[in-house]
Amino acid sequence: MNEITVKFTLNGEEVSISAPPYFTLLRLLRERLGLTGAKPGCERGECGACTVLLDGEPVTSCLVLVPQVEGRRVDTIEGLSDGDHLHPLQQAFIDESAVQCGYCIPGMIISAKSLLDNNDSPTRDEIKRAISGNICRCTGYVKIIRAVEVAAERMREDEI
Amino acid sequence: MKYKYVEKRIPRIDARDKVTGKTLYSTDRYPEGMLRARVLRSALPHAKIIKLDVSKARELAGVEAVLTHEDVPGHNGFGIVTPNWPVLCVDRVKYRGDAIALVAAVDEETAEEALSLIEVEYEPLPIIDSPEESLSPDAPLIHEDGNILHTMDIPPKGDVEKGLAESEIVLEQTYKTQFMEHAYIETEGGVGVYNEDDGVVTIWCGSQYAFRDQLQIARSLDWEPEKIRVIGSPTGGAFGGKDEISVQIHLAMLAIYTKKPVRLHWSREESIVAGPKRHAMTASFRIGAGHDGVFRAIDVKVVANGGAYDTISGPVLNLALESSPGPYKYADSRFKGITAYTNNAMGGEFRGFGAPQVVFGVEQELDKLARKLQMDPIELRLLNAVEEGDISAIGHRLNTSAGIKETLVAAAATSLWKDRDEIKHKLSGENRYREYGIGVASEWHAVGMGVGIPDFSNIIIEIGEGGAITLRTGAIEMGQGNLTAYAQMLAEVLECDISAIDVIHGDTTACPDSGSVTASRSILVNGNAIIDGVSILKPILIKIASEKLGIPEDELEYGDGRVFSRNDSGIALTLADIADQAISSSRSLKVTGHAVIAISDKDFGDGLPHNYYTYITQIALVGVDTGTGEVEVIKVISIPEMGRAINIDGVEGQCEGSVVMGQGYTLYENIIVEKGEFKTTSFSTYILPTALDVPEHETIIVEKPEKTGPFGAKGVGEAPTVPIIPAIANAIYDAVGIRLEKLPITPEYVMEKLREG
Amino acid sequence: MKFNYQRVNTVSEALEALSGNNETRKILAGGTDLLVMIQEHLISPGELLDISGIEELKEIGEDDGMIRLGALVTHGRIADSPLLREKALPLVESCGEVGSPQIRNLGTIGGNLVMASPSGDSIPALYVLGAEVILASNEGERSIPIEEFLIGVKKSAIRSDELLVAVIFPGMGADDRGFFRKLGQRKALAISKVSTAAIVSLRDGVIASARIALGAVATTVIRTPRTESFLVGQPLTPEVISEAARLCSEESRAITDIRSNAAYRDEMAGLLLSRGLAEIAEEN
User: Measured between alpha carbons, how far is A18 from A28 in angstroms, rounded to an integer?
Assistant: First the structure.
């Protein structure tokens, strides 16, 4: 099968990469770009473990085909931290012990980032809604929700 | 006692890599030139294989291997207890998940196409859909030696019939539970690599016990275990479902055959259909008590659906029986169970291990009894609760810390319980469609493997250059926080900085055998092994320091991460100094710690009974929509007594996650299998709780240190999954006055019960 | 998952591509249903025609009281649109309950319509809004009332040379009150077991017109004509609401499947109506 080449912005860098057109963005990231932060959990859009930002909006990368990212912006968990400096969400997930097996966490943090990008003081219900497409089987979500609250607080303080 | 690391909130040592996406799970490995494997699964739930022709698949371009039962060199079966689960079926399939052939090809698409080219002809056999059918006298045999997978009769205590006859109140009820899916977000998967140079095959796979996987692979390959390396950690969730073989043997066969790296990662559907489930069970109870509320007699019968093969169904049934009376005293008791083979889903190991299925029922019976007696349900439980030293309902002496009373007292003191009428009243004013209820339930949950089953751990502690500390354990990090807890305990006894500790885990080559990560045992056994290791290490440190300092050993002491002179604490060597001294004299500072879990004074066989228990009480507040039947779990309080909390965040995390898993089981989750066919094969039909569905949660930790546990700890990985189930059911009764005898409690079921009145 | 792939960037390119006969071709919009169906081997198209990049199909517009939604407008944008919140509340409420944030960011209104699932959440809302579907082909455009467009389970009236380009409907007027309610197996990522959308016009406390649609209770979304006629001319009293609920349940024709059973769905169709109407009554 012929491969096609797509150009897009991945974590702030221009990339040009070839893959079969039937590859999903998830497979492209994992198998061709070596970024395994986005995880396959169901490959039906039902678990959220593969969540990435597409033009700033969270999407399940298992339901996006490679050619559809042409010219667009894709952000994954690998692009969230700035060198050793973690994103406040990442730090809060560590500090609040919101991580157990960790398999859902990259997708979870991406969904939470999209929320905080648009809303610096989310209510608890808004947080739950924002991560409602990310299934976690370990944590019961309690410390995850708390971590998002803590990250939002810290980000607000940093603004001031 | 004040600790530096234990009993604290310590962030996970592996969290940083997990939040940055750097952690490599087994299924994140993509070595150069890797093939993609797929498994051909049975098209029928029960059939003879008349013909199996893989020639067309083998001819397809890009296909590098098509393997069948003929390619299994050793024992064609696996199973933790009885290895009768075929690696690849020979002439018969017994459930829809049965594996018939393996394909490895250059890419996923070719592998999939190759599967479609394999020709299998079946002769359908009658499908046995339930244990009742399976056990009927004229049932066709699923296994040659009969359809009974396992039976267990715990030796009766007293005379249960007499006890029931003499009881002033006797309650009798049967409860049914469904198959439940582990639904770890990382499905079973991994990578196999065969190295022709040294003849070693390496398997990365999600696991709970790499060393047992190694032995099971060796048995099927007919290889020396030393030639098989299994790296089973970290894994993206396990919950009991990865203790058994999934991809391991298949990967080894394909990697050896093709001499290329091979990847096999089950789809979600495959994980649901082929992998083990929580057993569906029917549990019947007769409970006798006096008007004073004192329990007298309990008679329990459990029938379990084992599925097509054994795996670990026997011990699961045994623990269901052991768990069924709960942490209460009864003079007379009888516990009988049977597990039957069927052509349904595979019954297997799952967090709670048989307890959820029985505690769901028995704790509702106690709630009924309390209401009958007009007693507070916590008072009733307190009246009958066991203490350390008591003889349990199953007849063994409780030789370890038993804090059920303390958890009940703590429950009674919560505002949610004390002010429950006021809380329900206030909520009712806010939503006219709902009634509110608060329920309570308790459980004891066995820790460890039980009498007669090897229950040990070995760990290795090494101090290297610069004082770098390495802890090696065969234990798996599957999300429960093992690694952090081990580092905490090691830092505590070695009095060193936790950040100096590197934990290497779950690798049969790099680590010693620490036993399986199962049965809530890991803290207890590995903690004791760590303490043992440090107790061996300290004299060695003192000996080497003595050489370096020229001070006799008996004038030296270990403390605060250094060896110092008793006479002049200014004279001291750090771990780095001592390590350098050891290295310069070509010695290593490496010790092996060992521990064995103590056993009960009784032996009922097959792992019964246990010697350690976690005790727990949980309270649930629910709202029931009387128009739609929908149940919302609003708030839950978990009150575990786990001896000692090693990591407070970890204990809370286990409770919070367990409660939601229990909630899912209670309200939503159901693997539906009809005539052997799976009706729920994805996350759109198998319903897991989302963040919008889950309750607010509070953990109240009750500590009752156990003298033989590390820092007094026992374990807490499973217990909080269990009483939440009847706590929700009891809360629903409190809200709307209906008793729920089967799971899950769907809105449809609630409405049916409400209509019955 | 293996297929040929063609991407088009304008409607005319799409129509050109569609004019060639290709039995195994499927149109890819948001992909949230199509790619799942391919993964599950329910369909195996030989070619995907990807229209997801056609910018002209992503507009939300209003012209002289008529709302026009391009086929590629996502559920997420509908749920967040202030214009639609004012003019098409049932649609906003329904799109806000589709799947999850991730799915709402991908899935499109046109895709939801063409997939023609009886449990597609946007569809009952479009029924009560009186929507029409605009289909384009090389022969020109035609518009079909939504109730004629959807003809069966996963069956619509679209021809293989046609592209669904937009859905149009009159915005709700000042007297119109509407809602969408659904019951799923959980609160997010939930496929409806039953859903009810309604718009009633209230003049001087009396219902001047009523449109009700039920999802997931028949082979297509259905209207409930008897309930609607009963309501017209009535005030929203508890008695009227309860009779409407009873009639609505009677008109529901649900089946039993893996998610729920017929009796429950029928009863809930009416219950959801009664709760929505009760809320409207209280607000007025």
Answer: 9
